[in-house]
Amino acid sequence: MTAAPDHKPTFADVPLSARIAQAMPFLLIPILVVFGFVAIGNPSSWLTLTVSGLAMGMMIFIIASGLTLVFGLMDVINFGHGAFISVGAFVGVSVLFAFGQWAAAPSLVLNLTAILLAVLAAMAVTGLLGWAFEKVIVKPVYGAHLKQILVTVGGLIVIEQMIHVIWGPEEIFLTRPEMFKGAVTFWGAALEKYRLLAVAVGLVLFVAMRLVFRRTKIGLIVRAGVENGEMVEALGYRLRVVFVGVFIAGSALAGLGGVMWGLYEEVITAGMGEEMMILVFIVVIIGGLGSVEGAFIGALLVGLMQNYIAFLEPKLALISNIGLMTVILLWRPQGMMPVVKAK
Amino acid sequence: MSDAILTLEGVYTDIAQYHILHGVDLAVPRGAVTMLLGRNGVGKTTTLRTIMGLWVAKQGRITFDGEDITQAATPARARAGIGFVPEDMGIFTDLTVEENMMLAASTGPLDAKRCEWIFTAFPPLKTFWTSEAGNLSGGQKQMLSIARAMAEDRSLYLIDEPTKGLAPAIVSTMASALKELKAQGASILMVEQNFGVAKAIGDYAAVMDDGRIVWTGEMRELAESAQLQEQLMGLSMEAG
Asked: Which domains does chain A have, with CATH numbers?
């Protein structure tokens, strides 16, 4: 082929200030942790609150990661996501009850197996429910935000009522599997075993999602589709199929989050998902639409902030996350790491 | 004119309440470069997007390689062998140059030999292979946009204003690459405002006005006639 004219591109030097600005969202977590350490003063209390905040953040991330993709890739405001959290919790807890002997046995393997079965069942049911929800409720309202809010809130109410019909209107109390009850002591701090499990599950999920998005073709298609779906189609990919796959995956993740949250709170209700949606939307918005990394950082910030403030100034805990969102949106109106620009 | 790889018969396209195409009739010859010319706003981009299926033709028939694709979805048209370079380049800015190219190879892994061939035409892409595409200059983005269409063998390339807003040196790079594609026997339908480039690359020309084709013929004939240019496009585009 004919060679191009002499052209010697060079990499521009990025100023330090620009590098810091780029890395700032990632730095916010250690900054907040250090702030917490200074403000709390007591190292053991600080460690307990930090692990608790990280665990809470990880569970919010599990739920929010699915929503940010649905929001970013499909431009769908899905309030029905809250219903998948609740359904996941009820299905998962039902499975845990069915395998009650395994959950009650003082065996880590049996306990983890019971949790794994509960999680798999919850993800399967919520994934299937997500597929039906997309086909029946969301598909007719693509591109119409107001209608999306109306019909998905309607879908949320219907599913919540279905939970009442199937499992009854009362909340269900549960206890965690035997090996995840209580706490371990580390440097004088009491760290709940279950919260450590939640941190581990969240980290594994985050790493797995990063690998899928960075190292696989389907991940590339999703990332590209979030930015410019039309061009992805023009390259020969059926984005509609990817859309549905992402919706199903997002719903299944909500189911996983529901099980984890139910075990965390040790009580489940039909409205638990709906109540969580405020936190989840805060995470999606401050993280930036369509960004899994943004959702991860946002979720950890929300979890840590809530725990630190609840300890330092309990009355402010209720507004701490709204305050966090306000500050971040004043700093970056599109969220910390937006993939999709707000329309 | 050789046999047509693509034909449009009486194609009408609306965008929202606006009627943009009013019965486009066009035959794109196989193995040649057809320039789609005309003033701003006459429907050139809409024609390309309608062929690609990004706008739906409300009436008329589009045939590609003997198959009626009027009702086909965009991915099916792409997989049938139509490559598309949009006016805004359609670069995925959060992805690296490599990832953009990997996506362009929709039927399998990226072919290393083909990549080397592309690097010959667009050396900066090799330099910035692992950089985010959003950090490229305008010219480099345009190179990537065309390289992406070249990542796999296509029967037809739809290219929308590839030299728009580019420096002369980069325009020359583009022209060389497009000539090479042409030499490989590719069929190209290209919208181009730079008459010098159109004249250098084009075999045939189709001129649009008010949403329809008003003239078709050899590019040479149009380039040589200032009167024809004045009559069809309202101004003489005679340039170097």
From this structure: 47-331 (1.10.3470)
Instruction: Report the gap between the CA of B177 and the closest CA in chain A (Å).
Output: 7
- Average pLDDT for chain B: 89
If one counts every other C-beta atom within 10 angstroms of the C-beta of residue A244, the result is 18
Listed by number, the residues of chain A in 225-244 with a beta carbon closer than 8 Å to a beta carbon of chain B are 227-228, 230-239
Q: Which residue has the tokens 């581990």?
A: A200
Q: Which residues in chain B are contacts of A5 at CB distance < 8 A?
A: 169, 172-173
Interhelix angle A193-215/A43-74, rounded to 10 degrees, is 40
Whole-structure pTM value: 0.82
Extract the residue ranges of chain A whose pLDDT is less than 50.
2-7, 342-343
Would the CB atoms of B148 and A235 count as touching at under 8 Å? yes
pLDDT in tens, B90-145: 999 989 999 999 999 988 888 888 899 889 888 889 999 999 998 898 889 999 99
Nearest to A112 by CA among A43, A196, A225, A45: A196
Domains along the sequence of chain B with CATH: 4-233 (3.40.50.300)
Degrees, nearest 5: CA angle A294-A297-A303:
135
pLDDT at A12: 56
How many beta-carbon pairs below 8 A join chains A and B?
A: 92
Distance CA B8, CA B51 (A): 8
B135 is written with which tokens? 């950090």
Please say if the pLDDT value at position B225 is more than 90.
no
Question: How large is the angle between the packed helices A217-234 and A239-265, nearest 10 degrees?
Answer: 140
User: Distance (Å) from the C-alpha of residue B101 to the closest C-alpha of chain A?
Assistant: 11
Q: Tell me which chain A residues have a C-beta less than 8 angstroms from the C-beta of B128.
A: 9
Q: Of B106, B121, B179, which has the smallest distance from its Cβ to A4's Cβ?
A: B121
How far apart CA B9 and CA A275 sit, in angstroms, is: 56
pLDDT confidence band for B236 (50 / 70 / 90): low
Pick the residue from chain A with its C-alpha nearest to B124.
Answer: A9
Regarding predicted confidence, which is higher, B185 or B208?
B208
